[in-house]
Input
Amino acid sequence: MKGSHLPQCRLRCSRATLRFALRLAACALLTLGGPAAALEKVGVQLRWNHQFEFAGYYAAQEQGYYRDAGLEVSLHPRVAGADPVEAVLAGAAQYGVGNSSLLARRAAGQPLVVLSTIFQHSSGVLLARRLDGGGARRDWVGASLMLPPGNEEVLAYLKKKGLALDTLRRLPPSDQYDELIAGRVDLMFSSSARAPYTLDRSHIAYEVWSPRQAGIDFYGDNLYTTEAELREHPARAEAMRAATLRGWAYALAHQGEMADLIRARYPDSHSREHLLYEARQTELLVAPGEAALGSSDPARWRAIAATYADLGLLPAGQPTAAFPSDGFLYRAPRPPGLWPYAAALAAALLAAFAAAYARHLARRLRAAELRLRQVDALSGLALTDEGAWQWRGARLSFSAAAQRMLGYRDGQLALAPAEWIEHLHPDDRARVRQYLAPCLAP
Output
């Protein structure tokens, strides 16, 4: 039996080592699986009040995309009379939604960074009231204008149209159409995604002046942040960007659901029909068929910078070619190449091979132990003469110890094969005859 002690010891040691490793791994998993990290609270400053223009942000909240990214996001509507970009610069919100005027502010030294362009086209338009008889107005000198700051594409359009800003009477901007409907204002800035729905039901004659009609195609809504936020929380900024794009993809694919959500969250919002109109117009501005969601073209930003320079809205001597290479546009981390996946595959294959080889060794070890136990048992029987038998002529002879085990006296049990086989169980006789046939052959 001594020959089987060493393999058994090794097997017991291997099993003990395996149990220890499993316990250690379990402890590591319990440590890693502790309480979930608290969500990071961040704010997003919107350009206007709640409406379908921000449906992607609502979807990212409702569908849990922000939560999955480790973020608890609050959305701040615009405060009347306040500059929403200043709220981000002051740290009241970490992120904001802004239009192409972010570029001019960056050129003026404000540390703003565009994370993602959501709207490929600006919704900014001028609503021009026709004459009472419905005819087009010929002379706009002295006409009244409502235009909030930060909509430079409209200024470029007026310049291209030959309307000098100093020939127009500026009125405080408003997002209500009553002044235009009542005829108290001639030109009013608004959004192409909202205004036509209301004005078409007011039965007034009006025109929509879009800068795109004159080849001035600015980007619309952008998700932006500050250099400080990007520097101090780069992973958070990327998570915010990715979750927001997921939200926009969902919102565009589920417009009716988002209209219902906006009405449920914000009872003062427009009717469902109005929101669905906004949804259709918003999809045209996002233009998912023209460019990948969230993408922007540096060359197009340079063209926008050239327009600002033409309007005198860039600092003197500011080279437009510097945009957007000066850090104004965020560069998302590049996805890793194939080598990490190849390394992971190689590691998985190596682990699978190691596990298979370990199982092979374990099987060989068990087989060796079994053979060793059999040899030990046979060796013990040989030493004690127990169970030994031999052929003597044509008869089968058992050892004295074997005869005593079977209840016979020494010399009493000596049988011819045919007689001995009769002592076997009937089910075993044919098999034993087959085994003995070669031994009994002449």
Q: What stands out?
A: The chain has three domains: 40-119+220-322, 124-214, 343-440. Residues 124-214 form a domain with the D-Maltodextrin-Binding Protein; domain 2 fold (CATH 3.40.190.10). DSSP finds 17 helices and 13 strands in the chain. Residues 1-14, 20-35 have pLDDT under 50 and may be disordered.
